[in-house]
Specification:
The chain is of the alpha/beta class. It has 15 helices and 14 strands. Helix 9 runs parallel beside helix 10. The longest helix has 22 residues. The protein is globular and about 60 Å long.
Length: 455
């Protein structure tokens, strides 16, 4: 398969044929929302209806063609309908769609391949069909491995919407009503390091990782009953705004966890499988977690997720059955296997590293040139820009975030809003030319919003 399979369909984007959302989008969205409720902010702020995706483009029902800076929601990372992935799924769609948790030829291959690309001895696994289910199984695994029941997670991390996943996260999110009167017993939350908005600082004002680690040590002593099974974190905060921790954070946290007999569980549903330029985001810090979960990019759009623990804990997985209706079905395994092979064959990780660096530098320049761009967040293609009313006070500028999102969408950029932090998740195949195209649409929109607010 030629690496540039997606380029022809990207020629001449954006193609804008109607005002957007166009008349057919408006009609279809109006009809659908008579029945379908609870849409994300992404859709509510820009209700277009998509009918096709190819590579780095999305086409709506009015024929408008957009540059994709969202990959679904960090999902279609190798480009929409990557031919190798689509072919692999359709092969099994025509042969064997489901065989419960029986072994199939394609499951055998996926297990071997995944164990091969993961660091250390992360090679005991189970497959599921959404990120939340993988997270739930990780919580069960941590309990089975340690015989302990408490969990510590971090402010503003996100892990899904089931009871245990929600108990590891914020329970009232924006306009989303509380998931319940309280989190499940034994689940606690602590702040995590955000270099732009640190809780603990050194004398020179920069973030003090040791302050966080010392606080966790004290919290484990004073705030738990001494039965902590796992520390649960996203390696890089996704929904929370693409927040990258300082480089010394994970090595120090792993040391603390080992000292206390606590497992380190990295939820890589969003950050894993190439998005940051490594198979695992944790590889950036040479830390091998005890438990890891994948989703999103794992099947490039086909619902397939995984929960993996290291070999020495493999026997505990027999205590938590992997049986599920859809987990590890042949189509799912084929999508995940093909996606891993594409990452290798197309040298996706090095593309993410080089084009990611180009994007980071371009965003740093925007920070220099624009009074409302307060901070840049970047690891590979996991990207964000924080908008503030004033660079000294760092007051979040959510109104600007919403407007920039809508304006850039109108220019032909399909992307992801998150309040005052602009989030970007371009397909990992993207080259500098199209990265520049998307960033210039964002920069133009930032400039227009600054004018409107009198900057
Ligand atoms: C880090 C993380 N974990 C878990 C989930 C839940 O995954 P899913 O929506 O597939 O259930 C998400 C979803 O955004 C996520 O970002």
């Amino acid at each position: 398969m030629a690496k540039d399979w997606w380029k022809e369909s990207a020629a001449d984007i954006p193609i804008l044929k109607t005002e957007i959302p166009g008349p057919e989008s408006k009609r279809m969205h109006g009809n659908t929302t008579k029945y379908f409720h609870g849409l994300s902010g992404q859709v509510k702020l820009f209700p277009v209806c998509f009918s096709e995706g190819h590579g780095i483009t999305l086409t709506d029902v009015d024929g408008n063609k957009y540059l994709d800076f969202s990959s679904g929601i960090y999902v279609t990372s190798l480009g929409h309908c990557h031919p190798k992935v689509s072919e692999a799924v359709s092969h099994w769609a025509n042969r064997l769609m489901n065989a419960h948790d029986f072994t199939t030829p394609v499951k055998e291959k996926l297990c071997e391949k995944l164990a091969d690309v993961l660091p250390g001895k992360l090679n005991a696994m189970q497959f599921y069909s959404d990120g939340t289910s993988a997270v739930e199984s990780a919580i069960r695994a941590a309990r089975a491995i340690t015989g302990k029941h408490e969990f510590i997670s971090c402010f503003r991390d996100f892990h899904g919407k089931s009871m245990a996943a929600v108990s590891c996260a914020q329970m009232v999110r924006g306009d989303v009503f509380s998931y319940g009167p309280t989190r499940a017993p034994g689940f606690y939350m602590v702040p995590r390091p955000n270099p732009y908005r640190p809780h603990f600082t050194k004398a020179d004002g920069t973030i003090d990782t040791d302050g966080y680690i010392d606080f966790y040590r004290e919290f484990i002593q004073e705030g738990t009953v001494g039965n902590v099974a796992a520390f649960v974190l996203e390696p890089i905060q996704g929904w929370g705004g693409s927040i990258v921790p300082p480089d010394d954070f994970f090595p120090k946290l792993k040391k603390l966890c080992d000292e206390k007999g606590i497992l380190l569980y990295a939820d890589e549903v969003l950050a894993g499988m190439g998005r940051t330029g490594e198979w695992l985001a944790m590889n950036h810090w040479d830390v091998v977690p005890d438990i890891v979960t994948f989703g999103k990019s794992f099947g490039n759009g086909f619902p397939v997720t995984a929960m993996v623990v290291s070999e020495e804990n493999a026997s505990a997985l027999d205590k938590i059955s992997a049986s599920s209706s859809y987990g590890g079905n042949p189509m799912a395994c084929a999508a995940a296997l093909a996606s891993i092979e594409v990452i290798e064959e197309e040298d996706i990780l090095s593309n993410v590293r080089t084009v990611g660096e180009f994007i980071r530098k371009r965003m740093e320049k925007m920070k220099e040139d624009h009074p409302i761009v307060g901070d840049v967040k970047a690891k590979g293609f996991l990207l964000g820009m924080e908008l503030v009313k004033d660079k000294n006070t760092k007051e979040p500028f959510a109104e600007a975030g919403t407007l920039v999102y809508q304006k850039a969408f109108r220019k032909g950029l399909a992307w992801i809003p998150a309040g005052h932090i602009l989030r970007m998740s371009p397909p990992l195949i993207m080259d500098e030319k199209y990265a520049e195209l998307g960033l210039s649409m964002i920069e133009e929109s930032i400039g227009e919003v600054e004018n409107e607010f009198g900057y």
